[in-house]
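Run: sequence + nicotinamide-adenine-dinucleotide -> complex structure.
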Amino acid sequence: MELSGKVVVVTGGASGIGTGLCRRFREEGVRALVIADLNGEAVAALADELDAVGVTLDVRDEAAIAAMVSEVEAQFGQIDLFCSNAGILNLDGGDFWATSSANEVWQANWEIHVMAHVYAARACLPAMIRRGEGYFLHTISAAGLLSQPYTAAYATTKHAAIGFAESLAISHGDDGIKVSCLCPQAVDTAMLGGTDGGSAGIDGILSPAQVAQAVIDGLREESFLILPHEQVEQYHLNKAQNYNRWIGGMRKLRRSMSPPKLP
Ligand SMILES: NC(=O)c1ccc[n+]([C@@H]2O[C@H](COP(=O)([O-])OP(=O)(O)OC[C@H]3O[C@@H](n4cnc5c(N)ncnc54)[C@H](O)[C@@H]3O)[C@@H](O)[C@H]2O)c1
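>> structure
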């Protein structure tokens, strides 16, 4: 897909990777850009700067997603690309790491990382299928392919997001629907305590602008997996080839890491 002349929606667009995508989409010449985020002040400021439509919403609210999709379709005729990008990160803690997060935290991860993608697809698919084309970009994570230490709720729901994206691509590919999963490792955003363009001091960390470039390339190739960190492809292969060995390697990695500090 080429972005020029397209109508694009980005959730979680007011910060980090979402903002990087919005800036880059504008440079690529999209016809209309709609930025949705929980953070109303930040979304209004970015929409103003990028001559975009800003929408304050919670992606957990299906009615709000459906209303936004209807309004965008009414105003601009269609949605060509819907980017479900909003996300949250919490770290495990305590004595029982993998189960330590409260049920409310698991539920929030499920709703934001999975159900929000379902709500967007449910709202967009009817018009896309009628037109015979439409594209979903899901910002997931390398953690959706490869679980990582100390982030059980995050990694579990990101795996589920990959599962939903696969279902969408398989069920609706013949209707002209394209799906890409953006699966980076560390990116320098507020989520990792960094500031856009600064450095959170993590090895191999990419900037949101570098990730946005990988997205432009991946959308052009219509690639199901978009992997800004190239090594993720080999890690994923290693896991598929020898699951036991991969778990052993990840256990070794966990032993080498200091546990996250409890809040
Ligand atoms: N930063 C990384 O290292 C990294 C790596 C892999 C994947 N990701 C994924 O990238 C996506 C973007 O993360 P980021 O690093 O830019 O983080 P970020 O914290 O900078 O931005 C996340 C944005 O999502 C918004 N948001 C959160 N919950 C929301 C909700 N319920 N409704 C609407 N908006 C909501 C926030 O207000 C914020 O603007 C997430 O899905 C994240 O899991 C991030």
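>> summary
The radius of gyration is 18 Å. The chain has a mean pLDDT of 94.
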